[in-house]
Amino acid sequence: MGTRKKVHAFVRVKPTDDFAHEMIKYGDDNKSIDIHIKKDLQKGVVNNKQTDWSFKLDGVLHNASQDLVYETVAKDVVAQALDGYNGTIMCYGQTGAGKTYTMTGTTENYKHRGILPRALQQVFRMIEERPTHAITVRVSYLEIYNESLFDLLSTLPCVGPSVTPMTIVENPQGVFIKGLSVHLTSQEEDAFSLLFEGETNRIIASHTMNKNSSRSHCIFTIYVEAHSRTLSDEKYITSKINLVDLAGSERLKKSGSEGRVLKEATYINKSLSFLEQAIIALGDQKRDHIPFRQCKLTHALKDSLGGNCNMVLLTNIYGEASQLEETLSSLRFASRMKLVTTEPAINEKYDAERMVKNLEKELALLKQELAIHDSLANRTLVNYDPMDEIQIAEINSQVRRYLEGTLDEIDIINLRQIQEVFNQFRVVLSQQEQEVELTLRRKYTLIDKNDFAAISAVQKAGLMDVDGHLVGEPDGQGFGLGVTPFSAKPGKKAKSKKMFKEQLRPSTPPPKPVAFEDFKNERGSEINRIFKENKSILNERRKRASETTQRINAIKREMDVTKEALNFQKSLREKQGEYENKGLMIIDEEEFLLILKLKDLKKQYRTEYQDLRDLKAEIQYCQHLVDQCRHRLLMEFDIWYNESFFIPEDIQVSLKPGGSIRPGMVPISRIMSLGEDDQDKFSQLQQTELPEGPDSFSFYNAKVKTEQKHNYLKTMMGFQQAHRK
Fold first, then answer.
1. CA 154: distance to chain centroid?
2. How far apart are CA 78 and CA 87, in angstroms?
3. pTM of the prediction?
4. pLDDT tens, 558-591?
5. Under 8 Å between Cβ of 32 and 60
6. Rounded to the nearest 5°, which phi and psi values hold at 98?
7. Is 380 annotated as contributing to ligand binding?
8. Residue 256 is labelled as binding a ligand
9. Is the dihedral of CA 204, 207, 213, 216 positive or negative?
10. Cα torsion through 266, 272, 278, 282, rounded to 10
11. To the nearest 5 percent, what fractions of the chain are helix, strand and coil?
12. At residue 674, what are phi and psi to the nearest 5 degrees?
């Protein structure tokens, strides 16, 4: 088991224009918050009500960007998850304090994405940096609404609605949700699509405190399983990251909730109260029983609260005086959470079936090893360890020298070496067979003697007689004139022309790069012309986009310089004294010109940015056309190459117009792809310089695909309703 460690608790303050500076103070180290409330004189001079509070935390995030929040709160938890440690990140606070914005962010703006999409990106980035491991990622999305469990990904076609309700089940491995769908994601874009799919299914409502208030608790879980490619397959590690977005507590007199929203608020406050009771019990070292089963939320998070997990709490609070009561309640919860300790440990598992097979094999080898060891009385230093790569390479060298005659004998030490010697004999023999076959294929066209169809086709073409001798095959006298087949009768010009044409056909197909150049100049010339035209248009659009990006960057730099000059003028004016005339501020001519210049630069920036967005859309469309042409060109070349060099003449007759076989239906294997030329590589390099960079592509692609899917479903539902009417 791992060492016990305390839960990390951070606080994020929602930005507001009415921040209570006199009541809320931050410590110099940004790790404490002091709250002060003035005494109510109406309650008399003798008033023992507490007016000052001080809360020690792991960090206070005030006016912090989404980047800083993730770096501070979540990055280390996600990084350790790929090493086998479970992690949980929970957002807690009153309604409207910014929990969902912190956890999920906004899908409209890539820079404002929250902890959840950033965690997915970090997981897939780290997977790319670990080529020695085969890592699989799965995700699930659970919603707890009015003490009922719902699968937010049940709308996917592969899942479908469930007849039986989901339940929380415990076993020795931990807590899991029976009936919750878990989805394999092989790339970042797929994970984002699942996230956006679940977000569209969440239950929200509007009240006076928040126009888009989450009415349920949501738990997005990332499951990681890593197998080593270099070590034994028996042992592997697993971990999971729970990203919890709690519904906000609310006071009914402030939110003004009614009807269904009132019922939801009651369930939310009740579950959060049970969560706080569980936290208090976990913080008390004398308590033996922890009330996890009081509600679905605490039961589902049993592993995360005080268990085998790296736990981080992010408390969202308001900074306004009117919300001070809720702020104190949230800070008390964060302080109690800091008293909770967890015991994170690496989750190592073993493949039982493979482990048994390996142990049985090892046991048999050891028995044989000991038998030989006993029979060889003079061999006391026997190495029982498996051979490494250096030892295997040395045995391979000895086998080759033994076959060449430069080594008289191979010294035998133990059973493992004997087995490896025989294994290397087999390796060397296989390599020599391949070399011989490759040499023959360079000089001759090899035909399998059991392939009667191929032999019949060659005999019909006049390249082989009935005795199985090839035309032109040496007759043993050294002249290489060959024997004329009996079927080749003189005087028939048509057949002689056919045989002459077949003999002109090369026995070995030309290299595909050479054949590809001939194909582009002849049969594929039209497709190649369209491909070049589309690529020329694509390069022109990319060039324009690059120039526009450079202009945008230049305008942005000039805007920054102008802003600095304007701020300097403002500070200079404030030091020298400000002048007013009839309530209007008087500024000098230089400051006025800077304001006009900044306004004009912003207008240019917006115009250029819009042009860049249009160009990016055109580039995407042109790239699609180029990819289509490339695919068509390769497919046509594949068909032409196989029909020209691998199909016998009599079968080619069937491929001609009016024949029994349609071109393109001949089974073929995949061939080389059009490699990226220097222009393609340069274009990809340009994309990294565009605003927000290539990291945002999968995020936006997943968002667009999800929106298209839901728009399509809405349209189809509209058509069905109109049809019913």
1. 21
2. 7
3. 0.55
4. 999 999 888 888 888 777 766 555 556 667 788 8
5. yes
6. 105, 25
7. no
8. no
9. negative
10. -160
11. 50, 15, 35
12. -70, 115
Half-sphere exposure of 457 (CA within 13 A, CB side): 16
- 19 DSSP 8-state letter: B
Q: How many whole angstroms from its chain centre is CA 197?
A: 16
Return the SS3 of 311: strand
319 is known to lie in a ligand binding site? no
Residues whose CB falls within 8 Å of the CB of residue 249, separated by 6 or more in sequence, listed in order: 93, 94, 95, 268, 269, 272, 326, 329
DSSP H or E run through 708: helix 697-724
Q: Residue 393 and residue 570: Cα distance in Å, rounded?
A: 76
Return phi, psi of residue 261, to 5°.
-65, -35
| Tokens linked to 14 | 């929602």
Report how far residue 358's alpha carbon sits from residue 470's, in angstroms, rounded to the nearest whole number.
53
> Is 94 marked within a binding site?
yes
93 known member of a binding site: yes
Amino acid identity, position 207: H
Length of the chain measured in residues: 725
Question: Is 28 a residue whose pLDDT tops 70?
Answer: yes
Residue with the bigger pLDDT between 467 and 669: it is 467
Say which amino acid occupies 566: L
The per-residue pLDDT for 80 is 93
CA separation for the pair 71, 52 (Å, rounded)? 32
Residue 96, marked binder: yes
DSSP state of 32: E
Q: State the sign of the Cα–Cα–Cα–Cα dihedral 52, 58, 62, 66.
A: negative
- CA distance readout (Å), 276 to 87, 288, 302: 20, 17, 13
**How far is Cα 290 from Cα 284, in angstroms, rounded to an integer?**
10
pLDDT digits (tens, 9 = 90+) for 420-458: 899 989 998 988 888 888 887 777 766 666 666 666 666
Closest CA to 299 of 474, 191, 177, 430: 177
DSSP single-letter state for residue 132: T
Cβ burial 120-151 (10 Å sphere, 16+ → b, else e)? bbbbbebbeeeeebebebbbbbbbbbbeebbb
* Residues facing residue 222 across a β-bridge: 139, 241
Cα–Cα distance, 355 to 94 (Å, whole number): 51
Tens digit of each residue's pLDDT (9 = 90 or more) over 299-321: 998 888 877 889 999 999 988 88
Pairing of strands 32-36, 584-586: unpaired
- Predicted pLDDT of residue 669: 37
Nearest-angstrom CA–CA distance, 672 and 643: 17
Residue 147: C-alpha distances to residues 217, 253, 304, 430 (Å): 10, 23, 19, 66
* CA triple 664-667-671, angle to 5 deg: 85
CB burial readout 431-464, b (16+ within 10 A) else e: eeeeeeeeeeeeeeeeeeeeeeeeeebbeebbbb
